From TrEMBL:
Origin: domain of life: Eukaryota
GO BP annotations, alphabetical order: L-glutamate catabolic process
The organism of origin for this protein: Gossypium hirsutum
Xref: InterPro entries: Aminoacid_DH-like_N_sf, Glu/Leu/Phe/Val/Trp_DH, Glu/Leu/Phe/Val/Trp_DH_C, Glu/Leu/Phe/Val/Trp_DH_dimer, Glu/Leu/Phe/Val_DH_AS, Glu_DH, NAD(P)-bd_dom_sf, NAD_bind_Glu_DH
UniProt binding sites for substrate: K66, K90, S344
UniProt binding sites for NAD(+): T185, N216
Protein name: Glutamate dehydrogenase
Pfam families documented for this protein: ELFV_dehydrog, ELFV_dehydrog_N
């Protein structure tokens, strides 16, 4: 099932549990605005190259639309649409005053030089600058983009609208970024994992973890789990996968990845088939890369007892069903990875106030938001007799539906 069909399905199940009116259900599903732009840039060798960029603004009932920008070869409208919708429910689950959006450019950032990436980002910003803004739509990093990408967007946007640090989050600290934002998604994943494990009388210390993806989210989650005494026994990136039953030395692996750009040839573990990672023996599996990686092909073979969805929509509905029959507990993406957008909200607040928080305050507030959201989800699970995914969806959808009704959608 494609990402949009899967996301719509989860939304509809939640809508039925909540007993939403069918007209309201339809209005919540259809995106507010879909933007598709052509981005042509000169390559370093003087030839021209054209890429297609998207920004899908899903809903703004609860506040400005918010969500990352992804640079990846698989960026296409249905995927971006699904990711934008997930942002709407995620910001509502986190209880931060935003709606949802997502954007992306179909490109392979690994094949572009830094100056090509800068030109592409600036052209994309020129095409969408009048449709984003501090109180309308605030982009942030996602797969294949980072603080530098946000700096280029900020600079290009400011040429049209004056200096506007709050138009993007996940910026470099020197341009008004928040302390703690870079680590925030991984840190939020760890707070979410702690909240879940505590329900089962367990903690991170001594448990074994398999982590797919070693970029921003995967590397920070690995580092913090390692610091808390968890054993990361398998990791992967696009170049390959690595296992060590005694636990991988994550600080050493981080140095190796920084130096070589890949996990390959690290001598603190044995290499393994990357497809093996998802079905490797471990207590907790954390997908931190692409969507749809857990599907009917591999779900029956998953050995983990807990899955923490750090990536967006890593589990397709068929896998969801198979895994739940096996008794695997899944902490859903719209909660598990909400730490990133939560600290993006703190960054936006700091920019608007013109006052910087210290990192301790950022992390303390993040923990408060993640813990509160977990308990709110549990309450929805009890009220609707449903699993954690439906607990999170009903929580988010209900908040957006209430805001929509209060604003007078029937008028
Ligand atoms: N950044 C954020 O704040 C947030 C991100 N997310 C989600 O988390 C996920 C990861 O995002 P982020 O860490 O920012 O992205 P990055 O681009 O920083 O990292 C992505 C990682 O995934 C790896 N990867 C890509 N394709 C594969 C593959 N086929 N198999 C195994 N590994 C692969 C990459 O490998 P390599 O290192 O070799 O390139 C890289 O390690 C995405 O689903 C994103 O939407 C969710 C919330 C917020
Ligand atoms: O920080 C943000 O605004 C968005 C992060 C994001 O894209 C996501 O949560 O998937």
């Amino acid at each position: 099932m494609n990402a949009l069909a899967a996301t719509n399905r989860n939304f509809r199940l939640a809508s039925r549990l909540l007993g939403l009116d069918s007209k309201l259900e339809k209005s919540l599903l259809i995106p507010f605005r879909e933007i598709k732009v052509e981005c042509t840039i000169p390559k370093d060798d003087g030839t021209l190259a054209t890429y297609v960029g998207f920004r899908i603004q899903h809903d703004n009932a609860r506040g400005p639309m918010k969500g990352g920008i992804r640079y990846h070869p698989e960026v296409e409208p249905d995927e971006v649409n699904a990711l934008a919708q997930l942002m709407t429910w995620k910001t509502a689950v986190a209880d931060i005053p935003y709606g949802g959006a997502k954007g992306g450019i179909g490109c392979n950032p690994r094949d572009l030089s830094k100056s090509e990436l800068e030109r592409l980002t600036r052209v994309f910003t020129q095409k969408i600058h009048d449709l984003i803004g501090i109180h309308t739509d605030v982009p942030a990093p996602d797969m294949g983009t980072n603080a530098q990408t946000m700096a280029w967007i900020l600079d290009e946007y400011s040429k049209f609208h004056g200096h506007s640090p709050a138009v993007v989050t996940g910026k470099p600290i020197d341009l008004g970024g928040s302390l703690g934002r870079e680590a925030a998604t991984g840190r939020g994943v760890v707070y979410a994992t702690e909240a879940l494990l505590a329900e089962y009388g367990k903690s991170i210390k001594g448990m074994t973890f398999g982590i797919q993806g070693f970029g921003n989210v995967g590397s920070w989650a690995s580092r913090l789990i390692h610091e808390k005494g968890g054993k990361v026994i398998a990791v992967s990136d696009i170049t390959g996968a690595l296992k060590n039953t005694n636990g991988i030395d994550i600080p050493e692996l981080l140095k190796h990845k920084e130096a070589t750009g890949s996990l390959k040839s690290f001598n603190g573990g044995d290499s393994m088939d990357p497809n093996e990672l998802l079905v490797h023996e471990c207590d907790v599996l954390i997908p931190c890369a692409l969507g749809g990686v857990l599907n009917r092909e591999n779900a029956a073979d998953v050995k983990a007892k807990f899955i923490i969805e750090a990536a967006n929509h890593p589990t397709d509905p068929e896998a969801d069903e198979i895994l739940s029959k096996k008794g695997v507990i899944i902490l859903p993406d719209i909660y598990a990875n909400a730490g990133g957008v939560t600290v993006s909200y703190f960054e936006w607040v700091q920019n608007i106030q013109g006052f910087m928080w210290d990192e301790e305050k950022v992390n303390q507030e993040l923990k408060k938001y993640m813990t509160k959201a977990f308990h709110n989800i549990k309450n929805m699970c009890q009220s609707h007799d449903c699993n954690l995914r439906m607990g999170a969806f009903t929580l988010g959808v209900n908040r957006v539906a209430r805001a929509t009704i209060l604003r007078g959608w029937e008028a």
